[in-house]
Amino acid sequence: MISLCNSLPDDFVARKDALKAKYFPIEMNTNLPVEEKTEHMIEWYAASERLFNGVPLPMRELERAVGSALPELRDQSVELFR
User: Fold this and answer.
1) Given this model, what pLDDT does residue 59 score?
2) pLDDT digits (tens, 9 = 90+) for 25-63
3) Which residues contact 13 (CB under 8 A, 6 or more apart)?
4) pTM score, two decimals?
5) How does DSSP classify residue 79?
6) Own/partner pairs for 77-81, CB < 8 Å, 24+ apart?
7) What's the sign of the alpha-carbon dihedral 46, 24, 14, 16?
8) Where are the domains of the chain?
9) Using CA atoms, how far apart are residues 53 and 73, in angstroms rounded to an integer?
């Protein structure tokens, strides 16, 4: 959703996309042991948090982005909720 904010610097978006390109395949890899995958997910979270440090994000813009985003559920979410 935050990617929908127009005031984000281009380099922020590029670095965010690079993090996703690195870590998302790891998250989806069903062959990795949970312990190993968890370490990578913690790295991703920490790197994302560092990426946001110092990036101005006006509240109005964030509210607009959240309001216009269509939430996307992962595969088998319905089964999980049941």
Assistant:
1) 84
2) 999 999 999 999 999 999 999 999 999 888 888 888 878
3) 3
4) 0.70
5) H
6) none
7) negative
8) 17-52
9) 27
